[in-house]
Amino acid sequence: MATILEEITDRKRLHVAQCKEELPARELYSEVEKLMDEGLAHHSLRNALTHSGTGIIAEFKRKSPSLGWIKEEAQPEDIVPAYVANGATALSILTDEPYFGGKPEFISRMRKKTPIPILRKDFIVDEYQVFEAKKIGADAILLIATCLNKEECRSLGKMARELRLDVLLEIHDESELDYIDDFVSIVGVNNRNLHFFKTDIKTSFELSGRIPEEFVKISESGLKTANDLKLLRAAGYEGFLMGERFMKTPDPGKALGHLITELTTNNP
Question: Between the N and C ends of the chain, which has fewer C-beta atoms within 10 Å?
Answer without folding.
Answer: C
